[in-house]
Amino acid sequence: MIDVHRRNERRKTVSLPDENVSAGHSPEDLAVEAEYWAKLKDCVESCLNETERMVFKGNVAGEDAATLAMTLNLTRDRLYRILHDARKKLSLCVFSGDKE
Amino acid sequence: MKPTILNMPESSDAVGPWLEDVLSGGDLRGLVAELRAVHGDSDDNLQLDAVMGDRKHAVANQGLAALNRETITLLLTHPNLLLDLQEFLIVEGEEYWTSKFNADTESAHNAAENVLRRINDEIPESDLAIKAPESEPPTRRFLSLAIAASVLCIVATAWLLRPFGGDEQIASTTWGWANEQSTPQDASPDEYLNAIADGAQAWFKKPPSDKESLIKRLREFNDGCQRLIEMEHTAAQPRRPWVAQIQLPAMEEGDRKPTRIG
Predict the structure, then answer these.
(1) What DSSP line would sit under B212-257, residue for residue?
(2) Do A37 and B33 touch (CB under 8 A)?
(3) CA dist., res. B157 & res. B135, Å (int)
(4) To probe the interface with A, which of B2, B6, B115 has the most A CB atoms within 10 Å?
(5) What ipTM was estimated for this complex?
(6) Is residue A60 classed exposed, middle or buried when 0-12, 13-18 and 19+ CB atoms within 10 A define those classes?
(7) What tens digit of pLDDT does each residue of B149-183 get?
(8) How many CB pairs under 8 A join A and B?
(9) How close, in Å, is residue A4 to chain B by CA atoms?
(10) Phi, psi (5° rounding) for residue B165?
(11) pTM higher than 0.80, yes or no?
(12) DSSP 3-state assignment of B145?
């Protein structure tokens, strides 16, 4: 009885993959990720102007758009426009290496 | 490379549901790294309990809708807390989160990987031998552990509450193994063992309704156990006469094998 139970338990288990060699996280993938994160940090500081940076950081902090717009003395539409431009610049900077 | 942070909703009202999706199986590890890159290194001393306060269990039950915007902002600007939050939700999340984590196997796999990475950071590699059930949700595993711990507590309580004057108690207890009918000496071995099993079942006949009656019933049950351990079970022995010939030698450290004589 106990043996049957143990056998069933064994059948139900599966080993979790080792760190760093799991699917999608080979050493090469990890190196690419680390490079991307470093690039993102660099691009936020170097390719966005002051207003774009504040709007983008406010957005990724989950801040309320209306409050953020009021703080920066912007209309809401203008805020969304700036956020759109900031994302576009970041995407270009991170993935093509272009800095404006 | 899929940038998670650039896909964040523009409206702050939509951030909560989006974050729930990431927590329950999106690329949380990637998001945390991206948030660190944007916000810089945050205060590592900030604890999840301090940030969420008494809303923690509401989040386990209802999701991030239980948090106000300021708390979500704190989580996003201190991204390490998101990993703590995911671990908490895997362990203590209610049906709301269980269904999200079980939505697809890839989600569950991503979440498990995040937790495993964190465990790897804290435990030496040599001590790491973790097996995860394939079909069981993580919460069920912890539920099993909780039940096992509860049973252990009951047994320990029964042991601690055992009476010192055991003989008097045995005399006053009339159910279960304390009852002589549970060990009929004139029965066949099969009948004898069935009677003992019936004696154990007697525990369920009268569920204790309060603390005092539970303590009393545990004491009585303990009395029955004690009687069963100490008495001679001659009725169960005739089919295995060789049992009587086994003599345990004086036990020494590491010596556990019985010796057969004759």
Answers:
(1) HHHHHHHHHHHHHHHHHHHS--GGG-TT-GGGGGEEPPPP-TT---
(2) yes
(3) 34
(4) B6
(5) 0.70
(6) buried
(7) 666 656 566 566 655 544 444 446 678 888 888 88
(8) 84
(9) 17
(10) -90, 65
(11) no
(12) helix
